[in-house]
TrEMBL record:
Domain of life: Bacteria
Signal peptide: 1-21
A UniProt-annotated Pfam family: DctP
Name recorded for this polypeptide: Tripartite ATP-independent transporter solute receptor, DctP family
Keywords: Receptor, Signal, Transport
The organism's taxonomic lineage, starting at the top: Bacteria, Pseudomonadati, Pseudomonadota, Alphaproteobacteria, Hyphomicrobiales
Family designation: Belongs to the bacterial solute-binding protein 7 family.
GO CC aspect terms: outer membrane-bounded periplasmic space
């Protein structure tokens, strides 16, 4: 019975595919749970690929970081132990410094602007990814980063002197230093405990995670700022990709574009539901009346990092020109 239970658990992680053996199989790494919009989009992607290739290409989904964290999964693609992943763009910064431009505050106007920038960004960055052992299928929205705190945040001065958990990223650290906060780089898995014990006073994350990880319990104040978008890069091991027939590559590329297009409205719906549920559990949502005040104070971060990021100015101008 125990063996059967283990088999069932493993099978549940994978997308059901035709009974005959596939010619090409890929493990797709995800850091989210089953049911998360990113997982659902990846599930649809895998099914479309199976259908378009008549079962010749099989994509198995591994959720909850089962194949390792995002950095480990990206490294696995370079080593050949993982074939695919939807991984936060900033993870690739050490290999592809050009992606750092996506973390500049207020680069994107809204969700629609991110979606409209996908083709441009994919075209500009695909060769950089290829050179580092990745084939880039495109980008999608993981959600907008929002401040979550033990105190109300509505104006820039509200964060002065406060301890903030940040990503281990030079841009994120510089950004909150610029705002007068005291940034502390802490791994994602330690955020809840760090808030609970008072190591930090606030952090930023996405709306869906606010509910899923019960962050509202330790950060009852949520601010709708959308200062940075969390962008997911859909990547494939270049070694695995290069072994595929051209028609399979075309099928995978088409399915990825469709899935990336389907994800934002699904993400927006789940975000809204998550916030509503968090409010029922005692959270307070704060709207920002003057985003320009935040934008102008964060602008020096652009001045500091644009000269350090290859091709940043050209990429920014191209993104800003998109209507």
């Amino acid at each position: 019975m125990k063996a059967l239970s283990i088999f069932a658990a493993v099978a549940a992680l994978c997308v059901a595919l035709p009974a005959h053996a596939a010619d090409y199989t890929a493990k797709l790494s995800l850091d989210v749970q089953e049911g998360n919009p990113k997982y659902v989009a990846a599930e649809g992607f895998a099914k479309k690929v199976a259908e378009a290739t008549n079962g010749s290409v099989e994509i198995k989904l591994f959720a909850n970081g089962l194949l390792g964290g995002e950095t480990e999964s990206a490294e696995g693609m370079r080593l050949g132990s993982v074939e695919m992943g939807i991984i936060t763009s900033s993870v690739f910064a050490s290999w592809i410094p050009e992606v750092q431009v996506l973390d500049l505050p207020f680069l994107f106007r809204n969700d629609e602007h991110v979606v409209a920038s996908n083709a441009l960004l994919t075209d500009r960055l695909k060769d950089k990814f290829e050179a580092q052992g990745f084939h880039l299928l495109g980008f999608s929205i993981n959600g907008a980063r929002q401040p979550m705190s033990t105190f109300p945040i509505e104006k820039p001065e509200d964060v002065k002197g406060k301890k903030m958990r940040v990503l281990q990223s030079p841009i994120h650290i510089a950004l909150w230093n610029q705002m007068g906060a005291n940034p502390v780089a802490i791994p994602a898995a330690e955020v809840y405990n760090s808030m609970q014990t008072g190591v930090v006073d606030y952090f930023d994350n996405t709306a869906t995670n606010y509910l899923t990880f019960k962050f509202y319990e330790v950060a009852p104040h949520y601010t709708d700022l959308r200062h940075i978008y969390a962008i997911g890069a859909w990547v494939v091991s270049k070694t695995w990709w290069d072994n595929l027939p051209a028609e399979s590559q075309e099928a995978i590329s088409a399915a990825a574009i469709e899935a990336q297009r389907d994800l934002p409205p699904m993400q927006a719906k789940v975000d809204a539901q998550s916030l509503a549920e968090a409010v029922k559990n005692g959270a307070t949502i704060h709207e920002v009346a003057d985003k320009e005040a935040w934008r102008s104070l964060m602008r020096p971060v652009w001045d500091e990092f644009i000269p350090k990021i290859p091709d940043a100015q050209q990429t920014i101008e191209a993104i800003e020109a998109i209507q």
